[in-house]
């Protein structure tokens, strides 16, 4: 391995023409061995600036590596977070349905004839031309019978209202039969259908819900 000399004291590479004009100047530049105070300050300032730029570049590289590690951790956690969110939806829906069942049961115990009255009001135009309306319910007192008959009269029904007591039917359940159709209501069956519809909706949401991603989860965050 050869080392370049620190200086070339005798370098005659300047070319002149016949008239003495310099055709090609020498490339030799002597090494500067002394600096003025202002030059020293300038060199120090330049060195500080270069060191700062290198430190900032290294910091930016470390930050990029940290963000990449965070993104990888989030990608690994997304499936678990999605499962937790879906389980929370299911539990919330079950809690709401249980609370609704308790409230509805209390309301039906206090007003057992309310569903029947609502059905008669909704079906008034369908049963008003029928000559006979059969109402099957559990045990109802005479006052409730009279109120239902009056409700049918107010709705325009002019036929015969026949009550059939069915002791096995739960409270608030009923069956209506007329010439052109029938209608029925059972609180237990109604809540079962609501539960099935709720489970179907949750299953559909689990299959088509928007997946959580770092971009969507932290959108707008600094």
Overview of the structural elements:
With 222 residues, the chain is an alpha+beta fold. It has six helices and six strands. The protein has helices spanning 37-110, 114-122, 124-127, 142-154, 187-208, 214-217, and strands at 15-16, 22-24, 132-137, 160-165, 174-178, 181-185. The protein has a four-stranded mixed β-sheet. The protein is rod-shaped and about 140 Å long. Residues 216-222 have low confidence and may be disordered.
Short summary:
The chain is an alpha+beta fold and 222 residues long. The protein is built from six helices and six strands, in the order ββαααβαβββαα.
Helices and strands in order:
Blueprint: E1 15-16, E2 22-24, H1 37-110, H2 114-122, H3 124-127, E3 132-137, H4 142-154, E4 160-165, E5 174-178, E6 181-185, H5 187-208, H6 214-217
Parallel strand pairs: 3-4
Antiparallel strand pairs: 1-2, 3-5, 5-6
């Amino acid at each position: 391995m050869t080392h370049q000399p620190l200086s070339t004291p005798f370098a005659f590479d300047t070319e002149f023409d016949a008239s003495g004009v310099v055709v090609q100047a020498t490339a030799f530049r002597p090494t500067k061995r002394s600096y003025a105070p202002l030059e020293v300050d300038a060199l120090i300032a330049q060195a500080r600036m270069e060191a700062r730029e290198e430190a900032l570049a290294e910091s930016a590289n470390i930050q990029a590596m940290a963000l990449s590690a965070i993104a990888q951790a989030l990608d690994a956690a997304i499936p678990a977070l999605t499962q937790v969110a879906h389980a929370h939806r299911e539990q919330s829906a079950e809690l709401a349905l249980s609370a609704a069942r308790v409230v509805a049961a209390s309301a039906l115990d206090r007003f057992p004839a309310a569903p029947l009255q609502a059905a008669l009001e909704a079906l008034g135009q369908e049963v008003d031309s029928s000559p006979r309306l059969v109402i099957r319910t559990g045990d109802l007192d005479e006052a409730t019978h009279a109120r239902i008959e009056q409700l049918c009269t107010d709705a325009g029904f002019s036929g015969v209202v026949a009550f059939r007591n069915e002791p096995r039917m739960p409270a608030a359940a009923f069956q209506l039969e007329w010439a052109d159709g029938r209608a029925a209501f059972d609180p237990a069956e109604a809540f079962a259908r609501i539960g099935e519809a709720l489970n179907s909706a949750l299953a559909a949401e689990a299959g088509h819900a928007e997946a959580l991603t770092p971009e969507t989860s932290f959108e707008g965050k600094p």
